[in-house]
């Protein structure tokens, strides 16, 4: 069996996008926009006063961010804005969430920014030296007046018909808690880190293998939530060490095992428990399944082959050049201590 854990970790180091606590540059960019919104949102006395809170969401909040693969791609920062709306003052926004999005766009729209109202959010794009540098997706919510802790997401964009402008009940904070709750606690530190690495591996594989399609990052993240099983191996005389080849192979196998009638379903683990792959066309789904099979085969071959050089070449075809292939002269068979797999993947 070719041991490629060093190559897997090296690959992960290259693609990992650190969170706000470790990446002050991204945190400053987020705060710059939030401060601009705070300063400008209630400037016009003709507008009803708005109050809101904000929270981090997306890959930064779940600790699964990856660096952009292509030069044309840019850094994506996700922020949720939760507005306190009441019928007396804010009936216009309650009846038409797009009107609230327009208010936010007005507060942020200056020549240095491009602000677009999209169906699920308001996107603020920043350009540097003529190229996209980063963008901030502002998801607009209102407090849900029901008995749950859910939030209502503003759906619709400029030009949308009235029936496509609505508040959609969601549980974004619950989703973050569910994902971050996997393998929580110091005792599960290695398992948690391995799960996050596997999510990043899948994201980079997606970026490398697909130029377009509806295969979202949250779908890949939730696949790990549902089916990831850690693989830690026992080295006599040492502590347990992870084997990412096996854990990722097993995760891909679990995803493929969900195929039924030519489709795979990955459910959101919180309300509204929707199928995150429902938006994929038949052709997109067919491509996803076939490429997922190719990934599984490559991972299995990388485990079965004795030569690390040849094994790594199999994975480089799936993940791209960031996955390093060790030189042949460094991969001669060497004697090593017996490694005994433990856990669910043994």
Major sheet: size, sense and barrel closure?
A: 7 strands, mixed
Mean pLDDT: 91
- Helical segment tally? 11
Order of helices and strands: HHEHEHHEEEEEHHHEEHHHE
Going by helix content, strand content and strand pairing, the class is alpha+beta
Q: Given the C-alpha coordinates, what overall shape results?
A: elongated
How much strand?
A: 15-25%
Radius of gyration using CA atoms only: 23 Å
In short:
This protein is of the alpha+beta class.
Provide keyphrases for this structure.
single chain, 346 residues, alpha+beta, 7-stranded mixed β-sheet, 3-stranded antiparallel β-sheet, 11 helices, 41% helix, elongated
How would you describe this structure to a colleague?
With 346 residues, the protein is an alpha+beta fold. The protein is 41% helix and 16% strand. The strands form 2 sheets. Strands 1, 2, 3, 4, 5, 6 and 7 form a 7-stranded mixed β-sheet that branches. The longest helix is centred in the C-terminal third of the chain and has 23 residues, at 282-304. It starts with a helix and ends with a strand. 32% of the residues are buried.
């Amino acid at each position: 069996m070719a041991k490629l854990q060093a190559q897997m970790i090296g690959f992960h180091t290259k693609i990992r996008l650190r969170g706000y606590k470790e990446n002050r540059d991204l945190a400053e960019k987020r705060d710059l926009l939030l401060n601009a919104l705070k300063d400008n949102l209630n400037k016009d006395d003709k507008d009803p006063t708005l109050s809101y809170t904000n929270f981090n969401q997306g890959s930064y909040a779940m600790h699964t961010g990856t660096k952009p693969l292509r030069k044309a791609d840019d850094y994506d920062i996700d922020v949720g804005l939760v507005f306190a709306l009441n019928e007396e003052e804010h009936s216009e926004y309650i009846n038409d969430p797009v009107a609230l999005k327009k208010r936010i766009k007005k507060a942020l729209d200056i020549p240095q920014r491009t602000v677009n109202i999209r169906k699920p959010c308001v996107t603020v794009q920043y350009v540097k030296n003529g190229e996209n540098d980063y963008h901030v997706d502002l998801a607009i919510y209102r407090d849900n007046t029901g008995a749950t802790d859910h939030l209502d997401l503003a759906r619709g964009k400029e030009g949308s018909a009235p029936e496509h402008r609505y508040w959609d009940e969601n549980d974004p904070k619950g989703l973050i808690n569910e994902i971050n709750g996997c393998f929580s606690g110091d005792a599960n530190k290695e398992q948690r880190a391995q799960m996050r690495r596997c999510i990043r591996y899948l994201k980079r594989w997606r970026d490398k293998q697909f130029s377009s399609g509806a295969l979202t990052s949250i779908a890949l993240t939730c696949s790990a939530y549902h089916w990831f099983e850690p693989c830690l191996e026992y080295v006599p005389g040492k502590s347990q060490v992870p084997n990412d080849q096996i854990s990722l192979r097993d995760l891909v196998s679990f995803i493929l095992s969900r195929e039924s009638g030519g489709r795979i379903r990955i459910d959101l683990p919180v309300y509204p428990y929707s199928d995150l792959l429902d938006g994929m066309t038949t052709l997109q789904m067919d491509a996803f399944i076939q490429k997922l099979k190719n990934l599984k085969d490559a991972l299995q071959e990388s485990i079965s082959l004795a030569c690390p050089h040849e094994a790594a070449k199999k994975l480089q075809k799936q993940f791209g050049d960031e996955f390093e292939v060790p030189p042949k002269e460094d991969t001669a068979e060497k004697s090593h201590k017996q490694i005994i797999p433990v856990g669910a993947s043994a």
